[in-house]
Amino acid sequence: MRVRWLLVAVVAVLVVANYLNNVALRWAYPWISVVEVLVLLGLARAAGLTAFDLGLGRSTWRRGLRWAGVLALLVLVAYLVALALPAGRETFLDQRTRLGPGGALFAAFVSVPVGTVLLEEVAFRGVVWGLVARLRGPMWATAVSSLLFGLWHVLPSLGLGRNNQMVGSVYGSAAGAVTVSAVLATALAGVVLAELRRRSGSLLAPVGLHWATNALGYLIGAAIWTVSG
Prior knowledge:
The chain is mostly helical. 82% of the residues lie in helices and 0% in strands. It contains 11 helices and no strands. The protein has helices at residues 2-24, 29-46, 61-83, 86-90, 100-136, 138-152, 154-157, 160-163, 165-171, 175-200, 204-228.
């Protein structure tokens, strides 16, 4: 019963965090995310979760880093292939990556790893996955954490049609369809990330894939905007 109530508390913290990061205090979201992570880890500890339950056991670090490195390399190769295709190149033309070299580096190595990857991986593949696995097992843990991960992206998806040229050209003014698609896509991504966490036994594996997907996207997008003027 205690674990169930703590899971409810974790979901409540995530609802508040989502609002703060995307609406109320967007400018400070990397730093707020650190506080949110500490709160979530405190709730996990209160529930009796161990470092291994969270995918952070010391003996898993080396294996997790190997997975992370391979996955990041695969993302880089996929992005380079996409750049060779006109349609693939267009996917990187997102207004959020129009930052210049300094802004892109800050996004890739500060905002993304601290504000996005750290929070989301600890929250969904760490704490939520660990709590649900304790209650119902790994299959339910993956299903619940992935559903919540999809819903987490409702607010970030609201301006996606305006920010990304390809998304805008596909969906036009159908903002609702963009949001539904974003939720489904990120929920599916959540399944992949959760499975990586389960198979590797380490949170570092999904961290590597998550960071590479977002950070390399910022760096490549910023480079394209800079070259195109």
